[in-house]
């Protein structure tokens, strides 16, 4: 029996071929970084819910669990004044609606009203739909000026472990997926205090974001499928350690910053710039830089790229359905998703611990 490929079959085959070529382009354009990894106990400690944090026998991998009792989280034992922070992460699989996994830097515990923050936030989804994630930047408590960008991936992060990295220097911020830069923020005078400038810790958490994370809160965490587990390994903490209050460095931060700026991951080569362009044009489905409803005047750090601008409506959302992953539905909370996440994260280390204590 001869199988005749229909129009939809041909279209799907073409999409898969394009996806394969795209992946190869990214792979060859972005060389792997030479990184020095650490054990968990060399740079991190438990933040909350110790009973939901599981470490491997060699301390190379840590698993963070979410169940009815609590989420869980870890924090770096030091504050850093600039640096490169990275981990290989595998996200929970199946029934992930309402779940938020975050890898981020912050100093909200020390500077509650004028904190800085850099975020990777992975947002679970309803069955059959891919995980989505967003990046964000806050500086000096600038929570009213969210700087979200949202994306999908060319792989399934539930089945494959990939490296996610934050670079923070005096001159720029770069978000990486594996060795591919997906977003760069260049410091300028116009940003003023909105550029993160105070020492930050590094965090990783998993928690219940049912009120906003999936379909504007319509799809919530289903604890019939608990526990939900995210795994982290190959941890990297490279930067200048400082006292968060006195901001006294353990070494000379000027020298460390010079060395940081000379690292391969601090420089976006023409090849990596092309890889970033490919990623953003194919997998970014929201950018605040193109959201003329929220920002009548484009924020000063935004670099408007014509090939990107043509893809987005004035709401900052795509004009057409996402390639390789279906359509993007408008989120009811508009641009407040990142703000809601930040506000909930500020309290979750206390509230989840109280919840766990009362439930046990």
From TrEMBL:
Localisation: Secreted, Cell wall; Secreted, Extracellular space, Apoplast
Q: Name one GO biological process term.
A: cell wall organization
- Please verify whether the record's keywords include Disulfide bond: yes
Bias type Basic residues, positions: 320-333
Keyword annotations from UniProtKB, A to Z: Apoplast, Cell wall, Cell wall biogenesis/degradation, Disulfide bond, Glycosidase, Hydrolase, Secreted, Transferase
Known InterPro entries for this protein?
Beta-glucanase-like (IPR000757), Beta-glucanase/XTH (IPR044791), ConA-like_dom_sf (IPR013320), XET_C (IPR010713), XTH (IPR016455)
Keyword RNA-binding assigned to the entry: answer is no
Per the UniProt record, which EC number(s) apply here? Answer: 2.4.1.207
Q: Which PROSITE patterns match?
A: GH16_2 (PS51762)
**Which Pfam families does UniProt cross-reference here?**
Glyco_hydro_16, XET_C
Region ranges (Disordered): 320-360
Q: In the UniProt entry, which residues are flagged as the active site?
A: 117, 121
* Composition bias, Polar residues: 349-360
Q: Which GO terms describe its molecular function?
A: hydrolase activity, hydrolyzing O-glycosyl compounds; xyloglucan:xyloglucosyl transferase activity
Its post-translational modification remark reads: Contains at least one intrachain disulfide bond essential for its enzymatic activity.
Broadest EC class?
transferase
CC terms in the record's Gene Ontology section: apoplast
Task: Tell me which residues make up the GH16 domain.
Answer: 42-232
Similarity annotation = Belongs to the glycosyl hydrolase 16 family.
| Job description of the protein | Catalyzes xyloglucan endohydrolysis (XEH) and/or endotransglycosylation (XET). Cleaves and religates xyloglucan polymers, an essential constituent of the primary cell wall, and thereby participates in cell wall construction of growing tissues.
Instruction: Please report the name of this protein according to its UniProt entry.
Output: Xyloglucan endotransglucosylase/hydrolase
Organism of this sequence: Lithospermum erythrorhizon (Purple gromwell)
């Amino acid at each position: 029996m001869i199988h005749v490929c229909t129009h939809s079959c041909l279209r799907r085959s073409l999409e898969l071929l394009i996806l394969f070529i795209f992946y190869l382009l990214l792979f060859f354009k972005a060389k792997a970084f030479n990184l020095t990894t650490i054990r968990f106990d060399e740079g991190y400690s438990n933040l909350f819910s110790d009973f939901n944090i599981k470490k491997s026998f060699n301390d190379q991998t840590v698993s963070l669990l979410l169940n009815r009792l609590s989420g869980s989280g870890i924090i770096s034992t030091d504050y850093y004044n600039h640096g490169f922070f990275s981990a290989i992460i595998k996200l929970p699989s199946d029934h992930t609606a309402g779940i938020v996994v975050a890898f981020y830097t912050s100093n909200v515990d020390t500077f509650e009203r004028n904190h800085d923050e850099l975020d990777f936030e992975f947002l679970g989804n309803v069955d059959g739909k891919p995980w989505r994630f967003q990046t964000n930047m806050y500086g000096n408590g600038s929570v009213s000026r969210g700087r979200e960008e949202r994306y999908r991936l060319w792989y399934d992060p539930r089945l494959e472990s990939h490296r996610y990295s934050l670079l923070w220097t005096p001159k720029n911020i770069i978000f990486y997926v594996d060795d591919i830069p997906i977003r760069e923020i260049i410091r300028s005078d116009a940003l003023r205090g909105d550029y993160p400038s105070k020492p930050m810790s590094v965090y990783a958490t998993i928690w219940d974001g049912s009120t906003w994370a999936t379909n504007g809160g319509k799809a919530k965490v289903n604890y019939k499928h608990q526990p939900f587990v995210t795994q982290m390994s190959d941890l990297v903490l490279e930067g200048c350690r400082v006292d968060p209050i006195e901001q006294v460095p353990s070494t000379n931060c000027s020298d460390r910053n010079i060395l940081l700026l000379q690292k391969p991951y601090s420089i976006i080569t023409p090849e990596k710039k092309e890889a970033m362009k490919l990623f953003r044009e194919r997998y970014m489905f929201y950018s605040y830089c193109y959201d003329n409803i929220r920002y009548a005047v484009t924020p000063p750090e935004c670099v408007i790229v014509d090939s990107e601008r043509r893809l987005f409506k004035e709401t900052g959302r795509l004009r057409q359905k996402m390639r390789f992953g279906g359509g993007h539905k408008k989120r009811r909370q508009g641009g407040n998703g990142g703000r809601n996440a930040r506000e909930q994260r500020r309290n979750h280390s206390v509230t989840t611990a109280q919840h766990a204590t009362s439930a046990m």
